[in-house]
Amino acid sequence: MEKIKIALVDDHSIVRDGIRALITNEKDIDICGEYGSANEFLNKMNSTPDIVLLDIAMPGMSGLELCETLYDKYPEIKIIILSMYTEDDFINKAIKYGVKAYLPKNTSKKELLKAIHTVFSGKDYFNEEISAIMLSSYVKQIQKDEEPDKVNLLTKREKEVLVLFAEGRSNQEIANELFISIRTVETHKTNMLGKLDLKSSIDLVKFAIKNNLIEL
Questions:
Q1: Cβ proximity of 158 and 185 under 8 Å
Q2: Which of 157, 212, 211, 214 lies closest to 188, judged by CA?
Q3: I need a labelling partner for 35 at 20 to 30 A (CA). Which of 124, 157, 177, 200 fits?
Q4: CA gap 185, 103 in Å, rounded
């Protein structure tokens, strides 16, 4: 029977002990090494494992940095992340660096073994919780991509007023600069609030900064 060679990389020995206790009696799995950091793994790896099971938060080189290194130098090694960090940013970066499975640290033995066997067979494994986070992130990105460029909703004059206002000019100074009345300046600001669906003058400044209309 071909055994799946697994390396454990986690800076907490109690975590490594726990994982070892879960899988050490599996006849088709062999723990070929345990390492307390990403650097230790790269420097002391005796044989190339089939799968590296690792954490994200570690001293020195992080788990994600290790993923990137393995993706570049050891693409044959499959990566499973077991982490308490389940935010979409971590998951998306992990996938970018070739991670084949991402599991929360409260994962059961049954699910961990399922992930190991699925990844070893050449497939990806993301459980229901992680899949839901990934889907939510994907939907948000699509919605963001489809948002209209609100800057283009503004007229040339409104942009001029907005830039000057965001730079800290008073209504009087803006009026003098653009050769318009103070009332016209106020009208432009009111119109911009409506077009951009904003609530206050502070929101206008934030909008200008977010859309790189002024330099900080």
A1: no
A2: 157
A3: 124
A4: 55
The pLDDT of residue 71 = 92
Give the Cα separation of 72 and 89 in Å (integer).
Answer: 21
**Distances, alpha carbon 31 to alpha carbons 141, 189, 192, in Å:** 39, 66, 63
Contact call for residues 192 and 162 (beta carbons, < 8 A): yes
The pTM (predicted TM-score) of the whole model is 0.67
- Rounded CA separation 80/210 (Å): 37
Query: CA-CA distance, 186 to 175, in Å (whole number)?
Result: 10
H helix or E strand, kind and range, residue 82: strand 78-83
d(CA 94, CA 186) in angstroms, rounded, equals 49
Interatomic CA distance for residues 81 and 147, integer angstroms:
33
Residue 186 corresponds to which tokens in the numbers above? 């106020």
Q: Is the pLDDT of residue 146 over 60?
A: no
CA–CA separation, 2 vs 51, rounded Å?
Answer: 14
Q: Largest alpha-carbon pair distance within the chain?
A: 86
Q: Is-contact 4 29, C-beta < 8 A?
A: yes
- Check residue 84 and report its DSSP letter: S
Task: Quote the radius of gyration of the chain (alpha carbons, Å).
Answer: 27
Beta partners for residue 203, in sequence order: none
pLDDT digits (tens, 9 = 90+) for 13-64: 999 999 999 998 899 999 999 999 999 999 999 889 999 999 999 989 999 9
Domains of the chain: 4-143 (3.40.50.2300), 150-210 (1.10.10.10)
